[in-house]
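Appendix B. Chain record.
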Amino acid sequence: MEEEILKVIKERGLLLEKSVLELLGNFKDQGIAKDFLVDIEKISGQKMITMNLIGKNIEFVNSVVKKLPGEEKSMIENTFVRLGFSLEVRKERKVVEGEIKAGERLDYKVFYADTKPEKKLEVKDFTSHFRGRYTVLQRILMGRAELQQSLVSISKISGERQSLSIIGIVSEKRITKNGNLIIKFEDLGGEISAIAKSDRKEIFEKASELQLDEIVGVKASGNRDMLFIQDIVFPDSILLEKTKFDEEACAAFLSDLHCGSDKHLGKSFERFLEWINSEDKIAKKIKYLFIVGDNVDGVGVFPGQEESLSLKNYKEQYVLLGSYLKKIPKGITMFMCPGQHDATRVAEPQPLIDRKYAQILYEIENLVLVTNPCMVKLLEGQKEFKILMYHGASMHSFVSEIRELREMKAHRCPAKIIKHMLKRRHLAPAHGYVVYIPNADRDPMVINEVPDVLCTGEVHRLDIENYNGTLIITGSCWQSTTAFEEKVGNIPDPCKVPVLNLKTREIKIFDFTTEESEV
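Structure tokens predicted for this chain:
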């Protein structure tokens, strides 16, 4: 083992499994080996480096190995195989009874959320869920340069005044009689209170927008009795390299069809179907279609819903939906996730739409049913174009908790809401605002990989923005204004279809409004 590697092990207080030592010894460039070891420590937050730990960070390992020259790359890959590990990215899906395994072609991969608990849920499962969330977001935050120099665990904070950084989950917020904000943070070892002074406007505003249960970095001064916040660092989503395909293929995005509602805009959707089957030059380039939830209006979703239904049961609603989807050209692969109105449980992550009510969907060859949320990676050679699908039930909680969003009436510009999801690297951080099923190993609502596109539905308004390289698309709808929307002042923007060029990343919007949708 090179002296440089041994020096790093000693300086950083690391313990290495024998197999890890063997792996590092096979790197020809020991500088790369040293950086690999340091990065694994930072990413995992662990001092004991094992092959199992490296296996849990296989995405990072792949990114390193891909950059190695040919002979060295083969040697490292062979070392992994000899040690019993594959560098292939593992699918994040368990196939459960009652679901069919969606087909996979060479041009895409689907990474499903784990949706069903393996046993009866207990209180400790919620604890494990939050521990899993903390571990992933801690790893991301540890990579932030502004936190690295003085980062300590809460239990290690002494009674002497000092400048430091912590990574904590927000467990409590309250305003003092002087108008200051006190926030309690927890990590895996302890808890501490921190104060954001009202006379420091920028810091106070950052602290005010924190939601309970989200995980952030905090730069502060103080001691174990009280910290004074100097800055708040969010995990944040930054896409360093935008994927662009060589082939000029396109992806289109739909959401909120609400088939079965008496407000469903069937004529407008038929107009869309005519266009996608036409010789239009853009329509001919569409290779993928993403359909992001609330595909039918459902039954019993809200009190008195039966009065606003043209089709009174799920099966009839899905038959109508299936009749539409069968008209989509067979050369287009469709990905469909559920929303709160679909025939599946409301708790997130949502499993596939239930075959019992939607058998017709399982018979459509070019339709891939996916979970909510779900990551779809479109492939072209070694390139991956990552599209994260999430229907968006949590969007309302962001608006109610963040003053900036309330003041701008963010339901009318919903992409602003999605920016906050990306900023926090989490689709639904606040416990209690969205019903969810805890996962003991990992929180499937964490945005672990930064997507090229994050597409949602829910708010019935098309909105498009970029955030640090990620394209945000909030979907339009195929339902005219309902009585509920009229009551709360929500103004839908129906029948709009955005089409994304995967080569240029340019987006065009097509309007299929007819007279019925203007009523």
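Further analysis of this model is presented in Appendix C.
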